[in-house]
Amino acid sequence: MDNEKKFHGEGRREFVKQTSLLAGGLLAMPILSKANFFSGSSDVIKIALIGCGGRGTGAATQALSTKENVQLVAMADAFPDRLKDSYDNIKEALGDKASRVNVPESNKFLGFDAYKQAIALADVVILATPPGFRPIHFEEAIRQGKHVFMEKPVATDPAGIKKVLEAAAVAKTKKLNVVVGLQRRYQNSYRELYKRYKDGIIGDMLSAQVWWNQGALWVKPRKPEYTEMEYQMRNWYYFNWLCGDHIVEQHIHNIDVGNWFMGETPVTASGMGGRAVRTGKEYGEIYDHHYVEYRYRNGVVMNSQCRHWKDAPSKVDEEIVGTKGRIFCDKAQIVDHKGKVLYQFDKSKENNPYQTEHDELFAAIAKGEYKFADAERGAQTTLSAIIGRLATYSGQVIDWNVALNSGLDLHPKTYAFDAQPPVMPDASGNYAYAKPGITKYFT
């Protein structure tokens, strides 16, 4: 069955059913010998961190905070300062577990190919570089037979999605656990809300609304010694080949909740967006707001909005509307259409989902279980966000399958600090950005 049939129609629905069971740990999987999972005879689970920024540092700390016998044995990054800071911060954060950091200088790798060397030393790989590199890093981790925790999104363009899907299929044949950092799937309140939704508490779904609206983010000033490649990598959030725009890098969490409850991925996306507030050249090429209408095969519409506007109200939430009531995810509450509370999750029982996703992954690996196959679902949600970006950038209606098969590739031909990135500034230092009605995709 090809990828398109997996995403839509009967094959698509069965595909979603199976991956949902896998993600929930409900599908009975074989118990494998530890030879399938560990590189040596010891019961130590060896971890390599690929990408030593803030999220990589956090993910490694969470992996090393699990109950299992784990050690960080290798680290890789493009920049020595980030690797050093990450190493120091992980050790400090672990406190009395700092001995779990066992990374000699010989296992600290730098440069664009450093990931290959680090992956070779580990049983489990944490992929947390800017997301543009995720497809090639995931492909290599699976080629080397490693379990993977990878941050979302899993790509920034359709060509990257294809690469992830191909590697995900190989991961399944090798029975390699893969967890993607869409952590609401691992959060107690969301899991309880989803159970009740599936039990029919709000009836049939009518619509969904999802938001990630917040203030401004960081910018790192350009330094004279930076090449253009280094500048863009230091400011990766503002360049699509590295980040995918904030609808892909950040709002993906909320879009994933919509897809999860819908049990489908969108068929089309249309919308609008632009650069209303964040207009300076230091903000690269991305927009500061997006509004997308996602249409699903079952006829349901999900309205999606995200923005980065300083001093404007913040809202990060999801609302699912059904024939008999609605779910407010942030409140962890379900009400009928008259406002009567049908269910309220006890917030004292909330967990830290960032920690839980590692706890469950490493527990499965330690037991020799094949339990997690998140990569395909991560690719589904990432492509959902990507078609939203393509819709707001162009003003066109973007079809899921057309985008998936478009071959659109944002990446440079060569990864090197003296290489030219795919987007370059003009003489004034400004970057060209998409303009709806002028920018065209898939005509």
UniProtKB/TrEMBL annotation:
Signal peptide: none annotated. Gene3D superfamilies: Dihydrodipicolinate Reductase, domain 2 (3.30.360.10), NAD(P)-binding Rossmann-like Domain (3.40.50.720). It holds the Pfam family GFO_IDH_MocA. Residues 190-327 form the GFO/IDH/MocA-like oxidoreductase domain. PROSITE patterns: TAT. It comes from the Bacteria. InterPro entries: Gfo/Idh/MocA-like_OxRdtase_N, Gfo/Idh/MocA_oxidrdct_glycsds, GFO_IDH_MocA-like_dom, NAD(P)-bd_dom_sf, TAT_signal. Residues 45-171 form the Gfo/Idh/MocA-like oxidoreductase N-terminal domain. This is Gfo/Idh/MocA family oxidoreductase. It comes from Chitinophaga hostae. The lineage of its organism: Bacteria, Pseudomonadati, Bacteroidota, Chitinophagia, Chitinophagales.
